[in-house]
Amino acid sequence: MTKITDAEKALSGIKDGSVVAISGFNAATMPEYLIVKLYDLYRNTGHPNNLFIISDTLPAANNRGLDLVAKGMYADGDFNFIRGFMLPFLGQSPWLQRLALENKVAAYTWPIGVSVHWFRSKALGLPAITKVGLGTFLDPRQDGVYLNELARERRECSVRLTEINGEDYLVYDCPKPSVALIRGSVADELGNLSMEDEAIYGTVLAITQATKAMPNPGTVIAQVMYVTKAGAIRPKSVHVPGPLIDYVVEAPLEYHVQSASIKYDPRVCGRVTPSNVCIQQDGKLDLEKVIARRVTVELVNLMGKLGRPLIVNLGIGIPSTVARIISEEGLGDLIFTTVESGPWGGVALNGDDFGVAIAPFAVLPMPDQFTIYEGGAIHATSLGFMQVGPSGDVNPSFLPERLPGPGGFPSIVHGAPRIYFAGAFTAGKRDIRVENGRLIIGRDGDIIKFVKKPYKIAFNAELALKAGKEVLYITERAVFRLTTSGLLLEEYAPGVDIERDILGRMEFKPQISRGLRQMEPELFIEQRMGLREIALKLLKQ
Questions:
Q1: Residues 517, 490: contact at Cβ < 8 Å?
Q2: Structural domain boundaries of the chain?
């Protein structure tokens, strides 16, 4: 019995009201063809409808995947296709965010780490039990996992507080998937699935395991680029065994890209591993590069303190630029960068391509990657921020008109022993330049980011201090350290006025270090900083 079939036949068995698990870290591992054809089936027949969507991250990019589906729902004025979703990240999907903001569907969110571990737990018939999210907006004593009122009313997904051996934990749960839409590169005639040309493994196997688990084993449909003869795939290259897959659908290549802007690059999937990869910075030295350089300097200093190479995580936005600085400074064999989607090493990409790396030396499944993060097996992380409060609490991305979800942020800050938040000091339209080794603020951003009360808290500074974490807040004009008294200003950029450009652009007054010093002038000069030489000297001491 062949499992190879067309999309309509594979998808037509999905019942109204099904819980559908879909793989996808943005475009990576997103079964875009299956998503589009499923929505076409609904538009043509009215079925399946009233679906509940669960994902490990976000099976969408701008105008692709679920974002395109949400856009179509608005164009048709028909919101019966999806009744709700649990998505850890909505940042690359403006139309899904709109569905949530306007209360059109029930919208829930968890951290990515909780989601990927939940799929494995659900395969065992269990919820996800973790400390991740305690003391943040995810905690039921604050907002919980509900992004809108419809979710709060229906509560199909939940989080509750429990106590184990006298310590607080959070219990996350959602309905078990009855259908899984997954993606691989090649399947043989028996359904054995290889992911050899994918940028990442994602959570494809765990999603399959959760769907096939008792009670009520569900249906697994896999999208692939190619089908080959039975037995043609090496056993150790099989990521999902064929008996766990019900249908295999070949997709047109335009619906099977490695990332939002990369159709296929052999360096992304490891087919080609160049000995040296250096992606040039766009344009001249700017404030983002200054911030990324300062984070890299901190990592080099940490390397000297520990006397060993480092394993670090880099988040989306400015932190992902740190990977380019590491490459530019020749530090790739001393600072091993990781991205939450699974890649180790190489050069992490940004924007819609975040989650993909050029020439990584290893790629792990996401549940294994987050086990490393949450267990604290990395030396440091650099993550972005939108708002910082007086005690050091951080809101990474939420605003009343913006609901991007927490992404991997809560899971990573929970485990990482050192956290280097990295971001511009203000937001909004601005004219900030780097000239002659100085920071020139022609026009400052009109949005204050160091505020009295962050909109939502995803990093609890008090709990971080209790856990003994080292925390810095690195911007283009100031560097702060987290202390028991709140933020401590330790460094300022050459060319700025401390009262006017730093203290005058905050809603609260930080502590001022007695050893207040200027940021290193090399950060503001357009040439390599020689960090490799510095790192090697530190390691020899």
A1: yes
A2: 7-183, 287-423+451-540
List the catalytic residue out of 329, 340, 490, 491: 340
Task: Write out pLDDT tens, residues 237-277.
Answer: 999 999 999 999 999 999 999 999 999 999 999 999 786 66
Phi, psi of 345 (to 5 degrees): 75, -170
Angle at 445 between CA 442 and CA 450, to 5 degrees: 125
Instruction: State yes or no: is 340 an active-site residue.
Output: yes
Reported confidence tier of residue 283, pLDDT bands at 50, 70, 90:
low
Element (H, E) at 220: strand 219-224
Taking every pair of Cα atoms in the chain, the longest distance, rounded to a whole number of angstroms, is 76
For the domain with range 287-423+451-540, which CATH number is right: 3.40.1080.10, 3.40.109.10, 3.90.1150.10, 3.30.1340.30? 3.40.1080.10
User: What's the pLDDT tens digit per position in 401-460?
Assistant: 889 999 999 999 999 999 999 999 999 999 999 998 999 999 999 999 999 999 999 999
Tell me whether residue 461 is exposed, middle or buried, using C-beta atoms within 10 angstroms of its C-beta: 0 to 12, 13 to 18, 19 or more.
Answer: buried
Helices and strands (H, E) in the chain, number of each type: 14, 34
Amino acid at 111: P
Q: Is the pLDDT of residue 127 over 60?
A: yes
